[in-house]
Amino acid sequence: MSFFKNLNVDYTPGNQNNWSGRSAKLKNQYWHQEIQALSIEDLETKNSTDIGLIGYVCDEGVHRNQGRIGARKGPKSVRNKLSKLPIHFHDKKITDFGDVICIDSNMEDCQKALSKTIAKLINNHILPIAIGGGHDIAYANFNGIKKALKNTSNNKIGILNFDAHFDLRTIETQPNSGTPFNQILKENNTASYFAIGIQQQSNTKELFDIAAKNKVSYVSNFECETFDASLKSKLNSFIDKVDYLYITIDLDGFSSAYAPGVSAPSPLGFNPNFVYKVLAFLFESKKVISCDIAELNPDFDVDHITANLAARLVDFIVLSA
Questions:
Q1: Reported pTM
Q2: Residue 67 has pLDDT above 90, yes or no
């Protein structure tokens, strides 16, 4: 594991055996027939990839945030459901680069390992789709993007977060799944943040004050009933001010009718069709540089509803990219 030298982390390369499903007479009908599997260490010599999947097997941040642990099982659950989806994309090569795995409760090293992976994918002209894991994945993904752009002058990164929570908590003892965007904004004066789906009942007054202080743009869950002209205008203003877009989707932003298997479910969230429409709009900008999906907790899923949703979001991102 020379790529992750000096980091206290485990890594398992992509494995074709993790992808299985219905057999078909014709080739390339389902994801499990089309997906490639590779180690991130072999990327230089075998690069014919447009989109790279990477798992973030870590729920230490959720544990620190006093949430329901289990999100470390998210990447495996998403692969299982994604394997069986039919293919409707063309001329796109997708590779599974495996999982970075948190050990010894060392979330920080797991974040650094994911950041290195994200940067390497971007530098090889590959769109990363990271699958968590807790929402502390966002701090890792952002820093990977930042690392990839370190030698460019166009480095203004806009964060689009689909979420019920701001995740702007201040660090009291250790970073956790509720602190990533506070950390990012404190450390980066070129970062901008737009949260979609914020629920008043899921955020304290202090968090709204922190959002105002940091000039965070947001729309509430009540403004996510339809993707209307007002939201399009707000998003266009945000997109115009940045060079790249980083999209992060916390599954607890969805109504629990669509996503019961999360650390913090809520009946008041948005619906999948709304998110599909916004994602398509964001990808039209040609500025999306990385994506991730966080907080799938298979231990609390019902009939794999949330895992199926996460898999279909990945599939939609691939279609839109």
A1: 0.97
A2: yes
